[in-house]
User: Fold this.
Amino acid sequence: MAITYLKKSPKTSSTDDKKTAGIVEDLLKEIEQSKEQGCIDLTKKFDKYEGDIIVSKERIEEIKKNLDQKTKDDIQFSYERVRKFAEAQLKNYGQDFEVELSKGLYAGQKLVPVNTAGCYIPGGRYAHIASAVMSVTTAKVAGVKNIIACSPPKPGEGANPVIIYTADLCGADVILNLGGVPAIAAMTNGLFNNQPADIIVGPGNQFVAEAKRILFGKVGIDLFAGPTEIGIIADAKADPEIVAVDLVGQAEHGYNSPAWLYTTSKELAEKVIKRVPELIADLPELPRTSAEAAWRDYGEVILCDTDEEMVKISDQYAPEHLEVQTQNLEWFHKHLTNYGSLFVGEETTVAYGDKCSGTNHILPTKGAARYTGGLFVGKFIKTLSFQRMTKESTETVGAAAARISRYEGMEAHARTGDVRLKKYGFNVE
Assistant:
């Protein structure tokens, strides 16, 4: 048994991390000192935008009036499916309960949504309409009371009108013309007359990701995100054209977007290696430039001897998006454990989940799928425990707690049990 790299990337997703960290740290310090004005100044500098930061209700209504119906219908299509899926998650995920653990001792849990969520919606290179649907809708279904949406502005226009429309449709309470580090800082610190976010979610470039990483702890985040990734497991049954097209489909995201193929078929691998550059060359300039760099520097084709080896190497990489195009789909579905979202069979593809099929596209990268899944209603909900007791139960619980505390050397803890035992007429040991 052997694993052979027919193509090995010279870089990893973390190659640029140190440089990015320094830039973002400086920007965050600047905004911490200058608050809103810092956001405004940096927005002028980076986005060449000098308009209002807070999107007015009038602007939203103007967009609603002017946006073509087909676009509205497509967004509605995506929104309805993502909402339906989120509602199904909510219905089947966790329950409030209370149970009597021993006589007079009751414990349970309560599911409580966070109060304020910040949703970052990319809008620089591409207008990520679906990211507005994925983040805002899911937060709304979870029961979040206050949802702030941020998206980068364009000179003279502000945030992309379709993004504004989508965020409003999905339930955003406030929409800000802010992108990059200023957006993350503003939501974290409660700028522009908003409550500080309890959690910030949504994809973004390396600067957005680094800002979230640095501020994590001060604010909750969905996950530590890096460049988007695709892995494809394919055997001799797979169509090399579809495999190649799907790899390129993700590579266009950016210069550092990994695209990995794990296969037991050398013939398939060779066809894909030949076809990918041809497909890239046929793209318009912007996606072509991104895809060329991504495939050159981060693309890999890995030849395996067995299906088991494909599962093993895929689980090691833990790709954000994982497609399975094999003869035995059920077997792979059963045995794979590390991925952000799984696309089973040739009929489905990453773009479907990214845009409108229902599952969320805000997913773990850089191997994080080894320990976490992607964005879902549960990310916005805290599972809170509680307990209540009768006086009678203190006889056993209070005494035990006092003893354990003393074993640990925590005398003050022990005395909180003692005082209750004494008050309620029980012996203090």
